[in-house]
């Protein structure tokens, strides 16, 4: 995690076994969520980088034909509402919503 405003590394850690495809910080700046190429989604506390919860294989590996037949996999996008509704989309062709208990 890198703070571009202060130009410094905040934290470095291995959160996923596959590449991280997206990361979103909640508006409250208390939590952030990551989505990985293997379909896993993980939620962390921003101040401690402690994992709060995870959703394994939320978006399984899929196949996309719009990039010259190239294979894509996992979580492609995350969106968080102010009241902790987490929306995710993936290459499996689904959009999912979870309400996170804070």
Which helices and strands occur, and which strands form pairs?
Elements: E1 2-3, E2 8-9, E3 20-25, E4 31-36, E5 41-45, E6 51-55, E7 75-80, E8 85-90, E9 95-99
Antiparallel strand pairs: 1-2, 3-4, 4-5, 5-6, 7-8, 8-9
Question: What would you say this structure looks like, in words?
Answer:
By secondary structure, the chain is an all-beta fold. 0% of the residues lie in helices and 42% in strands. It has strands at 2-3, 8-9, 20-25, 31-36, 41-45, 51-55, 75-80, 85-90, 95-99. The protein has a 4-stranded antiparallel β-sheet, with no helix packed on it. It has a 3-stranded antiparallel β-sheet with strand order 7-8-9, with no helix packed on it.
Q: Which ranges are low-confidence, i.e. pLDDT below 50, for 5 or more consecutive residues? A: 65-70
Mean pLDDT: 86
Largest sheet geometry:
4 strands, antiparallel
Strand content: 35-45%
Radius of gyration from the alpha-carbon trace, in angstroms: 14 Å
What would the principal axes of the Cα set say about the shape?
Answer: globular
Gap between N and C termini: 22 Å
Query: What structural class is derived from the secondary structure elements?
Result: mainly beta
* Number of DSSP E strands: 9
Number of helices: 0
Strand order of the largest sheet: 3-4-5-6
What is the N-to-C order of secondary-structure elements (H for helix, E for strand)? EEEEEEEEE
Roughly what percent helix? under 10%
């Amino acid at each position: 995690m890198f703070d571009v405003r202060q130009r410094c590394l905040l934290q470095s850690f291995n959160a996923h076994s596959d590449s991280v495809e997206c990361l979103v910080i909640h508006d409250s700046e208390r939590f952030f969520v990551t989505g990985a190429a293997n379909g896993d989604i993980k939620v962390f506390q921003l101040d401690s980088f402690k994992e709060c919860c995870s959703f394994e294989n939320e978006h399984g590996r899929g196949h996309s034909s719009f990039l010259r037949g190239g294979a894509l996999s996992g979580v492609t996008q995350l969106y968080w509402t102010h009241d902790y509704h987490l929306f995710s989309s993936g290459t499996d062709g689904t959009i999912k919503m979870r309400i996170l208990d804070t």
